[in-house]
Amino acid sequence: MQPQASNGAAPSASSLADPARLAGAPISWGVCEVPGWGLMLPPERVLSEMASLGLRATELGAIGFLPQEPAAVRAALAAHGLRLVAGFVPVVLHERSFEVTRAAAEDAARLLAGAGAEVFVAAAVADFAWSPRVELGAAAWDRVAAHLAALEALVARHGLTLALHPHVGTLVETAADVEAVLARSDTGWCFDTGHLLVGGVDPTEFARRHGDRIVHVHLKDVDAGLAARLNTGELSLVEATQAGLFRPLGRGDAGIARALDLLDRSGYRGWLVLEQDTAITGAEPPVGRGPILDVKASIEFLQTVAPGRERERLS
């Protein structure tokens, strides 16, 4: 079952820029726990700028950005007319024991559910220190699938939907990784247009083939040239992001309009999270400048896109 909008009614795909459907993401303002990522803007600025764009919901952001107590999260967001929709949670799924991940996931699910979220977005990391990814054999992929099932049951007990997030640098990054999970697990997916493309998966093809598996959406566009330099090892993810890997919607190579049309055809009625990974270097940009301008550009792009228009163009 797909998560619904905050008013309890499934938002239609024709309201692509409707605040009832769109959510922000702190990473669009550079909020990331990865060391060396860049400047992390303060919550008051990030949340107020989200609200000024007409957004009424957000994801949780990096650990330490918002309080780690549900009532305090609700209060911090409510002060800006926002609510929580989801949170990104690193999990270790390939090891034989699931107990450490189970405990961490319980804590994260309790926080997310208590703060009003609907979706537990899981990224399969090599370990909790975000060590470099490793290649998995068949037995390890089988464990990933078994532990995904256990994780799905765990978060469901908290009233949350599990969404597996393909992500650069994790164990589910490449097209082969994605296929390995799809073949073994029926878990729902976070359709991240940017990370899929960087990993070698055509987002539109994923939406066409697996639209019924998509339970959450992260919309981001990508500069394919920078993605190629990242994949050859010329740039790290941080360096590529600082160079502009992630672009405002419609200004990259991820085929956002086509992907949105395919989501509409598949019946997706969940959240559309504007998640354009940003790394801020140098001094803090003036209020009203910097990241907010790119998010604004993405919202403006969505206002030009209507389901069926791309379908008609390509027919």
Q: What does this entry show, briefly?
A:
This protein has 315 residues and is of the alpha/beta class. The protein has twelve helices and ten strands.
What brief labels describe this structure?
disordered C terminus; 315 residues; 10 strands; 4-stranded parallel β-sheet; 12 helices; alpha/beta; disordered N terminus; 39% helix
How does the SSE layout of this entry go?
Blueprint: E1 22-23, H1 43-52, E2 57-59, H2 70-78, E3 83-91, H3 99-114, E4 119-124, H4 138-157, E5 161-164, H5 175-184, E6 189-192, H6 193-198, H7 203-210, E7 214-219, E8 221-222, H8 224-231, H9 237-242, E9 246-247, H10 256-266, E10 272-274, H11 291-302, H12 309-314
Parallel strand pairs: 1-10, 2-3, 3-4, 4-5, 6-7, 7-10
Antiparallel strand pairs: 8-9
Helix pairs in contact: 7-10
